[in-house]
């Protein structure tokens, strides 16, 4: 285990209005992990992703990242600008400090990697939902993030597009051209997807971590029954 984790939460809590969305979370994440966040609606998955991204400061406790850390976030619905596909990807690179010429070149390479190079000059708004999510992935991937945060990235897609985006995520997480392994943290209600993509699973309930296990242990019914009854009830309910 590295001396310096990619990120670490110590006793972190988050209050949103009258609600404690996250309560006393302790978590250490190492480079290369593929962490799935699971739990019922309102259990705190999105809140945790927003805290990890630095979008919301914690109300109590602390959060530290390895510095410097390049990170990117993908949402359930892609937030694309009203311009061409290539422009959308290039703009992210330009904002990150690349020249416009270099950004346009790199954008095309990123679009090639997600199989959308031939649509580079189309308006992003004219693409299907699955294609738009692939553009958002290309935009994130092009930045070579060390940490990629994803909030239910395939939830709004049809089964075919779901499979395509999921396959790309698998490819991204094993991308040997990256200088170091990318770390993924993703929220998902799709337990099949969690099994296929995650190396580790955190089960949240009422803003608390009730289980934090390697993926194979999380899907071991006997182990959950003895030690994590809430997680077992959740998994059984979701797969029933
Ligand atoms: N802006 C807000 N103001 C007040 N409470 C909020 C706000 N956003 C979320 N909450 C509350 O915080 C808790 C955690 O919500 P969060 O969206 O993180 O859950 P989630 O697990 O991502 O849910 P879902 O699966 O529905 O996306 C819930 O009780 C929710 O109602």
Automatic annotation (TrEMBL):
Keywords: ATP-binding, Cell membrane, Membrane, Nucleotide-binding, Translocase, Transport. The keyword Translocase applies. Pfam families: ABC_tran (PF00005). It comes from the Bacteria. SMART domains: AAA. Residues 7-231 form the ABC transporter domain. InterPro entries: AAA+_ATPase (IPR003593), ABC_transporter-like_ATP-bd (IPR003439), ABC_transporter-like_CS (IPR017871), ABC_transporter_ATP-bind (IPR050166), P-loop_NTPase (IPR027417). One of its GO terms (molecular function) is ATP binding. Belongs to the ABC transporter superfamily. This is Phosphate ABC transporter ATP-binding protein.
């Amino acid at each position: 285990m590295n001396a310096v984790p990619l990120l670490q939460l110590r006793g972190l809590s988050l209050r949103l209005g009258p609600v404690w969305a996250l309560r006393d979370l302790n978590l250490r994440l190492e480079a290369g992990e593929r962490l799935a966040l699971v739990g019922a609606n309102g259990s705190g998955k999105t809140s945790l992703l927003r805290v990890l991204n630095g979008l919301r400061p914690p109300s109590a406790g602390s959060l530290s990242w390895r510095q410097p850390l390049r990170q990117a976030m993908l949402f359930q619905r892609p937030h694309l600008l009203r311009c061409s596909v290539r422009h959308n990807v290039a703009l992210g690179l330009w904002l990150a400090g690349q020249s416009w010429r270099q950004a346009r070149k790199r954008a095309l390479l990123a679009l090639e990697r997600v199989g959308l190079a031939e649509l580079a000059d189309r308006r992003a708004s004219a693409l299907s939902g699955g294609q738009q999510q692939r553009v958002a992935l290309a935009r994130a991937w092009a930045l070579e993030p060390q940490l990629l945060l994803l909030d239910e990235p395939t939830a709004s897609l049809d089964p075919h597009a779901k499979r395509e985006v999921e396959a790309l995520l698998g490819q991204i997480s094993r991308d040997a051209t990256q200088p170091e392994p990318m770390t993924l943290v993703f929220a998902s209600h799709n337990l099949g997807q969690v099994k296929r993509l995650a190396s580790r699973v955190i089960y949240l309930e009422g803003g608390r971590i009730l289980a934090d296990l390697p993926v194979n242990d999380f899907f071991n019914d006997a182990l959950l029954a003895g030690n994590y009854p809430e997680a077992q009830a959740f998994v059984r309910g979701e797969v029933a």
